[in-house]
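Pair request: fold both.
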Amino acid sequence: MLGADGRMGSTSAAAIEATDDLEVVARVDVGDELSAVTGADAEVALVFSPPDVAPEQAEWLIGQGVHVVIGTSGFGEERVERLREVAAQHEGVGVLVVPNFSIGAVLMMRFAAVAAPFFESVEVIEMHHPGKVDAPSGTAVRTAELIAQARAEAGSPAIPDATTHDPDGARGASVDGISVHAVRSRGYVASQEVLLGGEGEILALRHDSSTRESFMPGVVAALRGVADRPGVTVGLDAVLGLDRPPAPGPR
């Protein structure tokens, strides 16, 4: 467990210890040596370290032959590609990069990708607590990527938007052509809404996590499944059997 003293780390440790087949054999946080992981003969490392150190730690763990589940936010395509390069040199090591451990959130992303080609407009709004250091969230970025991919495969036209003047960025970030808006407010843990619009109708897909315990079934599933998937996998979809492509959109 890396980032063991953090909120996700401590909650995950309790969930792991509550299982019959998993146990935490090493807890690593700021100031601790990574060698504690290999010294304890850990089979899988769960990474919740800060974004500035997590990539380097993950690469070291892969080099030691340890399977890695990454829950740290901010692993974009560039970092994932770097992990693929490292993992390719260590056959049999599984790496699972998880933007969101909530099974409900994973399903919401899946539903959004299925629905996106059927609607003219799509936007993503994510809401998190003010202690979150990255924006947009990894979940929102992954959602936008899946939506854009589904629309491209279906041959969907460009999303209409007549905005030509936005000096303050009110239209949000653009992730693969999908507008993503980030809210940081006390009271949220992790929430996301996908708005899909067509002539005369709006479909809203929303998921809310009110406690970190909501992520624990996904954490446990990831730890159990990572060794069965050598190389780098992004998202819980494959572990949950949701890695089949979504149905095609309208023609």
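--- second member of the pair ---
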Amino acid sequence: MSHSVVPPTRLRVPYITAYDEEAVPYRLTFARDREATDGWRLSYTDAIPLDWMFGVLWSRQGLHRRGQPRWKLVNTLRQRNAMLRLLCQVCGQPAAGPDGRVSWVLADDPGGPATGEGYTNAPPTCRQCVPEALIACPRLRRGAAVYSVGEAEPYGVIANVMGPDPAGAIVVEPNAVIPLDAFHRLEYALAVQLLVALRDLRPIPLLMAA
């Protein structure tokens, strides 16, 4: 039987939060690539194959969670991992329930129950962590909805689109939303968050989420 949850008295650092000692120095450049649309692709000067996924270069960060939490920043690699493996953004554990459906807390209407689909950069939140997420995040406190989601798949990235510069590369369009089928734009982008498309959204009452 559904029941309301007593809010936690001590808030954890969410799984996807970045820490100040996780910053990794790197240098960007544009490298020749015969498979790229115009023969050039954004790259690191010391790039390795794992730096790319979905045809786009990803921002480098550590995963050791040392230092002070940067509460307003997201660790790129943990955010991507949470999206791909459907892990809770608070505790890092699987967010799917016994029925296989995944609970998601959304600050913005992703398309609404009328359409039943949309996309988001916010990873899922397991039902046990929903009350904590609503308390800890100022944006969610201003207004949020909880959904049970039937399907989630990669849709695109939030990325900084780069342009050539004598020093290597400069940002020409920050925080751009780029779908995964926009191949040319992806070749000039440094991805910082993964977007997933959500389908079969069913609203869950906030106080009945756990």
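Observation on the second member. The mean pLDDT is 88.
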